[in-house]
Amino acid sequence: MAMNDEALLRYSRQIMLEAIDIEGQERLLASRALVVGAGGLGSPVALYLAAAGVGHLTLADADEVELSNLQRQVAHGMSDLGRNKAASAREAALALNPGCDIRVVEEHLTDEALDAAVGQVDLVLDCTDRFASRYGINAACRRAGVPLVSGAAIRFSGQLAVFDPRDANSPCYACLYPPGEGGDDELRCAESGVVAPLVGLIGSFQALEAVKLLSGAGTPHRGLSTFDGLSGQWRHYQVPRDPACPVCAR
Length: 250
Prior knowledge:
alpha/beta, 10 helices, 8 strands
């Protein structure tokens, strides 16, 4: 889609990047992304994707903003207490970029509704904090052949992985965490706590990978990256595709 002078100025710092250029920015403006979860991870994801010029966003979350969320969920403020998180995040994202088309789903996406939402987009970002949600999103992305950018954060630890069904060698979330073997990853912020900037770091990493995938810039992330906030160290792990995976095995 052609950009006017205002858009050329708004996105000029990205357009001047050789890896993005005009063509990449136009791809971003024409792209559709689904963000599942508008909390700690979903807040920076929604804000950065809107600011970067992803033209069409769907934000899905059934929860309401609570006072304890404001320590880290930066898309929401005091005036949003009691509001649906997806609606609140939409308002914050539109304040940054009113030209972004943002749809809100004020419910937990499951089953047919999840499949329908995933089937309408080019990319999905999992910003949830429950295993059941992650497995459901992963399976829907595999069925639709849509790339998935998955993030998680708890206490001082965060992680990111990209799963791309279009790549025959790419694993899926169930390859990384086989069903029934979640262990400590099932812990949630409400029970275990999380340091505020950690979700911003991981969410921003998710947004970066989304911009790369949608614009065609660089090389998509492969494997699993983990971050230890107490030591400041990143680690990267190769994640092979599981030939016996119940979700993606051929």
